[in-house]
Design brief:
Helix content: 40-55%
Family: Belongs to the peptidase S10 family.
GO molecular function, one term: serine-type carboxypeptidase activity
CATH class of the largest domain: Alpha Beta
Number of strands: 15
Keywords: Carboxypeptidase, Glycoprotein, Hydrolase, Protease
CATH superfamily of the largest domain: Alpha/Beta hydrolase fold, catalytic domain
Distance between the termini: 75 Å
Number of domains: 2
Largest sheet: 13 strands, mixed
Organism: Gigaspora rosea
Number of helices: 17
CATH topology of the largest domain: Rossmann fold
Structural class: alpha/beta
EC number: 3.4.16.5
Length: 459
């Protein structure tokens, strides 16, 4: 009888501990969201109070089969969240955390120089829109998991599932205009995600079970879209830009020769669709086009005007310090033991060795424009890595129904609301190229007033 009583006590104690653990796990999350169409996906979310406590926030994770955990952080608009559009912001890399975009560019706050607090950002894009910052693919930023994504298409499907689950829960957001914005390798992410949204929006069988996402436009800043076109302009950017040459005459001549070989290798990659050929092209082009510039000029890849002994952007270290604070992680629902980094080299390498990083995202754009989804390509004129010369050439080379009209359209001065001549713009039937003066790779950081101006006008 004593043994039986003790056994019952141990069972009760075990059950109590399991229930307590479940309660503690659930207590961390305000809600867990599911979707019938995506049974292997779920969103866990909570309501943090960081960065800008005056607006509604949600943070948490999209979980996929319990093997992939994608972190997100949502901020409502400071203005009119019932009517202002929803923005999905994605940084590039691949493997760069979107918290860089949050704290360093368009978010409601920046991180102070001690890395222990935040500063209000008056030029945030949440002034007139609600924004989702998403760390993707897996193992980027606060995201983690055992399954590394190695291609853009797989990454895009996870993002689409996230949006469906999110909008199913928040119907008030689903009825609003939706835009996708980002920079650098987001020139791959964004059109792929937009393509999936547009495809399922027009799938009569799928849409019966899915939310119709009101995709209005995409915005790509200094994006990597088509290396075959863009890489041709590295020699001109290094040797003939409006900021003056940063390489000597003989180095410029060698860069031009190396560029021809780079383009030849990319063509071989595209024609053969052979991963080894694509890896060879990526390795060669990165070494000759970026490595030579960086070693010999000493200039920053993100800004041809800057020469820095260490980092040209010390604020990025402050962001990592702040993001690794235990109190910040707890508030956001992040495991305190997770070590946050802004960039994940293993993700970069995964995309490189799959051949995806040097691929072109050209094919997504014609159908987007055909379906009246506006496209804005904006570029700071001092960026070397994804420079405006290559992007300008790409916009003119893109084959779509408006190619002729776009190329014949006049380039006009871009005058901001404060009366400044801040750039040049060419536009035709929803396709726009905007060159921004005195800005590097990260336009909202370098020109916060001008970037907020074009963003507000665009949306």
């Amino acid at each position: 009888m004593i043994i039986l009583t003790r056994y019952k006590f141990e069972i009760i104690f075990l059950v109590f501990n399991v229930l307590l653990l479940c309660h503690l796990v659930l207590a961390q999350w305000k809600k867990i969201l599911m979707h019938d169409v995506f049974p292997e996906h779920k969103i866990k979310l909570k309501e943090p109070h960081l960065c800008d406590k005056t607006v509604q926030q949600y943070s948490g994770y999209l979980e996929v089969k319990s093997r992939k955990h994608l972190f997100f952080w949502f901020f409502e608009s400071r203005n009119n969240p019932q009517e202002d559009p929803i923005i999905l912001w994605l940084n590039g890399g691949p493997g760069y955390s979107s918290l860089k975009g949050l704290y360093f560019e368009i978010g409601p706050c920046s991180v102070n120089s001690e890395g222990n607090g935040t500063i209000f950002n008056p030029y945030s894009w949440i002034n007139n829109s609600s924004i989702i910052f998403l760390d993707q693919p897996t193992n980027t930023g606060y995201s983690y998991g055992g399954d590394n994504v190695t291609d853009t298409s797989t990454a895009a499907l996870d993002v689409y599932a996230f949006l469906q689950i999110f909008f199913q829960e928040f119907h008030n957001y689903a009825k609003l205009d939706f835009h996708i914005a980002g920079e650098s390798f987001s020139g791959h992410w964004i059109p792929a995600i937009a393509f999936d949204i547009n495809k399922y929006n027009h799938d009569h069988d799928a849409i019966k079970k899915l939310i119709h996402i009101k995709l209005e436009s995409i915005l790509i800043g200094n994006g990597l879209i088509d290396p075959l076109v863009q890489f041709k302009y590295y020699p001109d950017m290094a040797c003939k830009s409006s900021y003056g040459p940063v390489l000597n005459h003989s180095t410029c001549n060698q860069l031009r020769k190396d560029c021809k070989q780079c383009i030849k290798l990319i063509k071989t990659c595209y024609a053969s669709k052979n991963i080894t050929n694509c890896i060879n092209a990526e390795d060669y082009c990165e070494d000759k086009m970026l490595g030579t510039y960086n070693k010999i000029s000493g200039r920053d890849l993100n800004d041809i005007r800057k020469s820095c002994a260490d980092s040209c952007y010390p604020d990025l270290q402050h962001i990592m310090k702040y993001s690794n604070r235990e109190d910040v992680k707890n508030e956001l629902g992040v495991n305190p033991s997770l070590v946050y980094t802004l960039a994940a080299p293993n993700i970069y390498n995964s995309f490189l060795y799959s051949g995806d990083r040097i691929s072109s995202s050209n094919n997504f754009f014609p159908s987007l424009l055909k379906n009246n989804i506006r496209v804005l390509i904006y570029a700071g004129d001092a960026d070397y890595m994804c420079n405006w010369l290559g992007l300008n050439a790409w916009t003119k080379a893109l084959h779509w129904s408006g190619t002729k009209g776009f190329n014949e359209a006049r380039v006009t001065p871009w005058i901001t609301a404060n009366g400044n001549n801040s750039g040049e713009v060419r536009t035709f039937k929803g396709f726009t190229f905007l060159k921004i003066f005195e800005s590097g790779h990260m336009v909202p950081h370098d020109q916060p007033v001008s970037s907020l101006d074009f963003f507000n006008k665009w949306i």
